[in-house]
Amino acid sequence: MSMAGNLRKVTGLDKVSGLRKVARLARRRTRVDLSHPARSPLGSAVVNCVAYQDGARVPGGRDLVDTVERVRKKDNGFVWLGLHEPTDQEFAGIADLFDLHPLAVEDAVEAHQRPKLERYDETLFAVFKTVCYVEHKELTATSEVVNTGEIMVFVGTDFVITVRHGRHGSLGPLREELEADPQQLSKGPAAVLHAIADHVVDDYVSVTDSVQADIDQVEADVFAENGARADAGRIYQLKRELLELKRAAVPLARPVQELATRPIRVIDPEIQAYFRDVSDHLLRATEQIAAFDELLNSILQAHLAQVTVSQNEDMRKITAWAALIAVPTMVCGVYGMNFEHMPELRWTFGYPLVLGVIATICLVLYRGFRRSGWL
Fold it and tell me: What DSSP line would sit under 55-88, residue for residue?
């Protein structure tokens, strides 16, 4: 039985149509698109499965169980199995084959986990939150800026199982980069775990750099001449999206620190030096995210202050015009009381005189308000 056929049996996909074509594609070592929603020829959940010996890919076409046994007998290779959003049924056979802990299997299938690192006997289980920047022509109060996914990694002495959730975070290019560096890949499953961690953290740095452009644009709009008219919803939306990035990056600091410092059997001490570099990059990303959060708070407060100042200016203008209107209203109200004996009531020039007095008083008030900046 071929490796593709055995994978179908293990994952319960033996009823998939076109089995001969599937096996033929698997034997030809096709370079499949690992991004969602494309699926591997190996099945609906299996993206790829490759055995490596001394840092080199072992040609496929053999039974999966036999391949694992051969790798374990030679004790100088490992199997890398990639999955995308597997179901319980699809993952059950694989969990039995590699003796994975049920709790870790449940977390890998259900997803929505916090970044963490757990040890189950001789197996490491790591959870990474992946992020990607969502391109948009114009930032609005409803724009999606950061999209998140998950990568779960099972690491044993002779196997690596990656379980990916989400519409991004493809590991295809990463696999090709590792295969192009046999010396690094020969260091075993720990090298794959480091490559995944480094890839995820590099995405954090890239996304934070992209988010900075949106923050700079919002900042420029707020402090523009009509900054008070800027949409505060955009600032709030940026804070929400930045929170998603923060939830992905900040909890990962402790697991990476453990991988870099604590002695772990499946992690070669030489690889731990590489994890220290990942930890440095992650620290840079988390510090930048914290700085962005503080900056957005300041921008939001500045915007609210501008709105308050603008409202005060509007109220002063309204008050000034109300004062101007009050003068003729008062005079006209007095003369509208219809008393028989009133000053200058029967004088020929009484009416023009009253209008002149009203105009003079209003002009004096207008000039006074203009000098004080109320109008």
Answer: TEEEP--S-HHHHHHHHHHHTSEEEEEEEES--H
- This prediction's pTM: 0.73
User: Which residue carries 């989400």 as its tokens?
Assistant: 166
Residues 149-173 as b/e (b if ≥16 CB within 10 A, e otherwise) read bbbbbbbbebbbbbbbbbebbbbee
The per-residue pLDDT for range 293-320, each reduced to its tens digit, is 999 888 888 888 877 777 777 777 777 7
| 201-246 confidence digits (pLDDT tens) | 999 999 999 898 888 888 888 887 776 667 778 888 888 888 989 9
Q: How far apart are CA 185 and CA 191, in angstroms?
A: 6
| Phi, psi angle pair for 305, to nearest 5° | -65, -40
Reduced to 3 states, what is the DSSP secondary structure of residue 16? coil
Give the integer Cα–Cα distance in Å for 268 and 184.
12
CA-wise closest residue to 68 among 31, 99, 24: 99
CA–CA separation, 169 and 185 (whole Å): 20
Torsion on CA atoms 182, 186, 191, 195, rounded to nearest 10: 10
Q: What are phi and psi of 123, to 5 degrees?
A: -120, 135
Q: Which two tokens stand for residue 342?
A: 């009133």
Please report, in angstroms and rounded to a whole number, the separation of the first and last CA atoms in the chain.
Answer: 88
